[in-house]
Amino acid sequence: MTDSAAAVRTLVVGEALVDAVTTPGGTTLEHVGGSPANVAFGFAALDHPVDLATWIATDERGRRIEEVCRQRGVALTPGSLGAAFTSVAHATLDAGGAATYVFDLEWQVASVPGLTAYGHVHTGSIGAVLEPGAAQVREILAEAHAVGATVSYDPNARPSLMGRPERARRTVESNIALSDVVKVSDEDIAWLCPGESIDDVVRAWGGLGPALVVVTRGGDGAVVHVTRTGEQRALPAPAVDVVDTVGAGDSFMSGLVSGLIDSGLLGGPQARERLHAAALDDVLPAVERALRTGALTVGRAGAHAPTRVDLR
Length: 312
Prior knowledge:
The chain has helices at residues 3-6, 35-45, 60-72, 133-146, 159-162, 165-176, 186-192, 198-206, 248-262, 269-276, 280-298, 308-311; strands at residues 10-13, 17-22, 28-33, 50-53, 74-76, 88-93, 99-104, 120-124, 150-154, 181-185, 212-216, 222-226, 232-235. The protein is an alpha/beta fold and 312 residues long. It has one domain: Ribokinase (UDP-N-acetylmuramoyl-L-alanine:D-glutamate ligase). Strands 5-4-1-8-9-10-11-12-13 form a 9-stranded mixed sheet, sandwiched between helices. A hairpin with a 5-residue loop joins β2 and β3. The longest helix is centred in the C-terminal third of the chain and has 19 residues, at 280-298.
């Protein structure tokens, strides 16, 4: 990591919650999760300074989240402790390790002071679509973009919370329009854009503003699309024995942003210019890092956050 990359402070905006995970054998264990929180933990594990703007309570679960954030080196922004209760995601694993979710949550987020301190801002998942917080997230993104921070976004669709896909798509696309980098899964596209091909969707979304759209395809790897040049390439996933898929997309997201920051393509207005002028070969190292971090996560139980040592 370069000195300039280490100096890029990142902000993640979105839900932190407790995952109550039930195994195929019927055992339930609780651990701290939430897609944006997992991304923040991933940034910290890869040595990027990071703050998390979220919405938790001062109850037992909220205190557990605070403690894990401290242990992982993630600072909570002021106003993050205003919730009446800490949200819970009930995840049930099937025999193949895939998770389905039921949520007990409410979401909003306080404004973040000092946005000029951040070179990059990330958001996604529930926090970017569930009102009243989703509108507050868009205000933070718009302000961050205006003061020069680069922005990344992962829709991470949760159909049980997002209502009708055509309505959810309008919200998702409003966030895409504020973003420089979008990471989306093929399952998200299938739900949000039924009947449309991945190629058509990434071209359309690229036209809304992001320089880079990356589509994850589970064990089949990822598709990378560069808006400026129209270049597109499918990359394979590393071979791995899957333990479970919890946190895999979040780990991929962390690795992608980390790689782009290290390459000088995220982290402020000059980095944004370089990203929007980049060609496919310029972004491939970051996507390859993302594929490695994702593979390392599915090879372990839970939302494991790989470090730079793991990536050697």
